[in-house]
TrEMBL record:
Regions crossing the membrane: 39-58, 101-122, 134-155, 182-206, 237-257, 289-311
Stated name of the protein: Sugar ABC transporter permease
PANTHER family the record matches: ABC TRANSPORTER PERMEASE PROTEIN, DIACETYLCHITOBIOSE UPTAKE SYSTEM PERMEASE PROTEIN NGCF
Membrane topology: Multi-pass membrane protein
Ranges where the record places region Disordered: 1-27
Keywords (A to Z) from UniProt: Cell membrane, Membrane, Transmembrane, Transmembrane helix, Transport
Pfam families listed in its UniProt record: BPD_transp_1
Predominant localisation class: membrane
Residue intervals of the ABC transmembrane type-1 domain: 97-310
Keyword Transferase: no
Family, similarity comment: Belongs to the binding-protein-dependent transport system permease family.
């Protein structure tokens, strides 16, 4: 029998040999590799930032500059606070703010409560929720001009459908858009119908995320429908409700399409003149871009202050 070989086997050498260490890559090579890998993502990101800067940041900066300038014969002259004095001394200024705040208050009563109540009602149905969601969202898919033309027909004092209905019920007919007392209310009805679909779907999604055990526990405690809404539904959707309240206030404070198309902007006795319509008048009817920018800046500051207060209160509640 031959003696065993003392030479280590290849398997032993490979098992106990020191692993080969690769040379560290150069920093420039790592950067180039990461750049090539993320080049597409960076390109999309840069494009989005540039679009946002051109169409959002630049107009805001330009408006701020124009608010302190006056443009005559194509030349801009720095005038300080003269544009703000012009705006404050305009009798339509305070009327426009009053109308805008009144419109916002009415829109919160209808445009904030009605979609939430409609979402609660749809959520109670066991079948047909998809068709009801589609039916509610249909007005949002209509172009705003088409929806406004529809309400022009409904509000017409001669052959309008609403006055025909009032006549059928033996009630006095109304001058919906020609009466200064109800013109703003008529605009709110039209705006609520046109825009409540999106809010209703958001509320409905929030309601479907509430655990059913909470309602069962409330029923065991003897809670009725309104108590369940007050003690279960509203607390569970508080975040969505507060966010939608902020968004609706910001949107209604900038209302323009409805009064411009339904009442010609100013309305009877200036009852539907809003802040944004007054900005439109300064810019395109009076060619006073400085005053328009000053009024727009005041609206921007007001809405920004309201948003900051909302964020601060929300953080305080969370803490």
């Amino acid at each position: 029998m031959s003696a065993p070989s003392l030479t280590p086997s290849k398997a032993g050498r490979s098992r106990h040999s020191t692993p080969r260490q690769e040379a560290p890559a150069a920093p420039g090579g790592v950067f180039a590799k990461n750049l090539r890998r993320n080049l597409t993502a960076h390109s999309f990101l840069i494009g989005a930032v540039l679009c946002f800067a051109v169409f959002s940041w630049y107009p805001m900066v330009r408006e701020f500059v124009l608010a302190f300038q006056k443009t005559e014969s194509g030349e801009s002259v720095w005038v300080g606070l003269d544009n703000f004095r012009t705006v404050f001394n305009d009798p339509a200024f305070w009327q426009a703010w009053g109308n805008t705040l009144w419109y916002t208050a009415l829109a919160l009563v209808l445009g904030f409560v009605v979609p939430f109540a409609l979402a609660i009602t749809i959520n109670e149905f066991q079948h047909g929720k998809s068709y009801l969601r589609l039916l509610v969202y249909l007005p949002v898919m209509l172009p705003p001009v088409a929806a406004v033309l529809l309400f022009q027909y409904l509000y017409d004092p001669g052959y309008g459908l609403l006055n025909e209905l009032l006549g059928f019920l033996h009630l006095p007919e109304q001058q919906w858009l020609q009466d200064a007392d109800i013109a703003m209310f008529s605009l709110v009805i039209a705006s609520t119908w046109m825009n409540m679909g999106g809010a209703t779907l958001i509320y409905l999604a929030a309601l479907q995320g509430i655990p059913g055990e909470l309602y069962e526990a409330a029923e065991l405690d003897g809670a009725g429908l309104f108590r369940k809404i007050w003690h279960v539904t509203i607390p569970q959707t508080r975040l969505i409700l507060s966010l939608m309240l902020l968004m609706q206030i910001i949107a209604t404070m900038q209302v323009f399409v409805e009064p411009f198309l339904l009442t010609g902007g100013a309305g009877p006795e200036g009852s539907t003149t809003t802040v944004v319509y007054l900005i439109y008048q300064y810019a395109f009817n009076f060619n006073n871009y400085g005053a328009a920018a000053a009024l727009g800046l005041l609206l921007l500051v007001l809405l920004a202050g309201f948003s900051a207060a909302y964020v601060k209160l929300s953080r305080a509640e969370d803490e």
